[in-house]
Amino acid sequence: MAGCSFLSVLAIHICLLLGLSFAEDPFVNYEFVVSYITASPLGVPQQVIAINGKFPGPTLNVTTNNNVVVNVRNKLDEGLLIHWSGIQQRRSSWQDGLPGTNCPIPPKWNWTYQFQVKDQIGSFFYFPSLNFQRASGGFGSIIVNNRAIIPIPFDTPYGDITIVIGDWYTQNHTALRKTLNAGKDLGMPDGVLINGKGPYRYNDTLVPDNIDYETITVHPGKTYRLRVSNVGISTSLNFRIQNHNLLLAETEGSYTVQQNYTSLDIHVGQTYSFLVTMDQNASSDYYIVASARFVNETTWRRVTGVGILHYTNSKGKASGPLPDPPQDQFDKTYSMNQARSIRWNVTASGARPNPQGSFRYGSINVTEVYVLRNKPPVTIDGKRRTTLSGISFVNPSTPIRLADQYKVKGAYKLDFPTRPLTGPPRMETSIINGTYRGFMEVILQNNDTKVQTYHMSGYAFFVVGMDYGEWTENSRGTYNKWDGIARTTAQVYPGAWTAILISLDNVGVWNLRTENLDSWYLGQETYVRVINPEPNNKTEFPIPDNALFCGALSRLQKPQHISFATSVRGSSRQNFLVGLVLMLSALFSIFG
């Protein structure tokens, strides 16, 4: 007993020292056990990917500048990477969780991510980035709160609610992957999930009995912040709540000019924050709806997610027809005009005290221009592939950043074209050579027949223009050079273009991809390599101690003999103290 008493006193002292060591930028720790479970979100038992036994996974709730440590245990039967979509990973693309920067976590292995949410606020999500796994789950929300000293541009909401929506198939990711590998389309999804659950039975013909649906309980008269992410495969969804206005306040780390919408199109990979006031009478519950956009609505009626908004004093169940989606079947500009209306709140503070608009992006000279064009799938060497500017990306066996670190030759080509290729398409590991501290203009030209959304890791970019037709040099005359929204994911409508501006101040290797999971899987992506050429510079963190090795560097990988593989950045004193705490945990398990 005396030994336990001594250990307790020692543990208290070490925890106090840790508190002092990390007082400036606190550490937040999570444990992710990633495994398969059986669930029936659409009434059909199927294999889904759960985190800690839950589908969807837990919400990461952190604050600006927190150091986030996530120990991931891979209990799947294949390699795994977790991507923290929208987290900029300042100075550390090592933690981005994508095959261009990381080797997969092997089955039965653990690996610890550690990253700082440096100078960020807002709403994001995470997901597994390999092998089409997102189609089976493994996703969850990320909240980055403002520090207490930075005011938010609205009254503090009564509650904060995360909602993940997305199209869903009753086949798991391995079956869907086989379909794509066989050169076939996935076809119409089987439904839309809201927080991992199927639709409320609003229609006895379209919705089977005994499906578990999402219910969000609220207090009348209160205002809540709803953070809504489209984590699906390829379907744009219209989000709406019956009889309630959605006051848009933030998207992917930027506060917006506050505007009311009766519904908003949320494209694959996008996240929005709404303020919703519970100002209706409580005679009944209200529908929460996420329905497919830009499709034949008669054929796709069952591809609709329906949840319930329940007032605590509600007197009855929701009934009757769902609230109408936008009536724009013959007006292709409606959704684009809605997207154009989303503007940056230039007077609000973001993660820092100074106003967001103090970064005057419209007055910065562009140093490099890339026009990226996607087309419908093509056949290359007998395989069905998607392309960007005529190149279908092939993931390297040795991740790009790792190849640079160890000077592996031939892992990739630094020759991605500034304009689309005119010859036949080809499959290559070709990436963009970005200029450190340059200012890049990227035009995303969508010559496919469905909406594409594009995401770039490592940055928030400015969405400065979009229109139908082919982009030309004259299109720059339409750019918004004052309050274009800064975000991480932008939609490009079919037969249209979207222009973005990127300040290349974050050293690393960063993925630029379509978020449409089927197109991404078939090659519609590239990477942007941003290197500081100055010798002995401190603009990138060193390779983490727990880096995994694969491809040409497989010989460097040691077997994993311990229960976790972790690497804590910080001073040697901090690392020593963390090690002591881990040792004490083991001693307590023996003597406690």
UniProtKB/TrEMBL annotation:
Sorted keywords for this record are: Cell membrane, Copper, Glycoprotein, GPI-anchor, Lipoprotein, Membrane, Metal-binding, Signal
**Leader sequence residues:** 1-23
Cofactor list: Cu cation
Kindly indicate whether the keyword Glycoprotein belongs to this entry.
Answer: yes
Major localization class: membrane
Q: Which residues form a coiled coil?
A: none
Where do the Plastocyanin-like domain residues begin and end? 34-147, 160-313, 398-534
Question: How does the protein associate with the membrane?
Answer: Lipid-anchor; GPI-anchor
Annotated compartments: Cell membrane
The Swiss-Prot or TrEMBL record annotates one GO molecular function as: copper ion binding
Cellular component annotations (GO), alphabetically ordered: plant-type cell wall; plasma membrane; side of membrane
Kindly give the Pfam families that the UniProt entry links to this protein: Cu-oxidase, Cu-oxidase_2, Cu-oxidase_3
Biological processes annotated in GO:
cell tip growth
The similarity annotation says: Belongs to the multicopper oxidase family.
Name of this chain's protein = Monocopper oxidase-like protein SKU5
The species this protein belongs to is Sesamum indicum
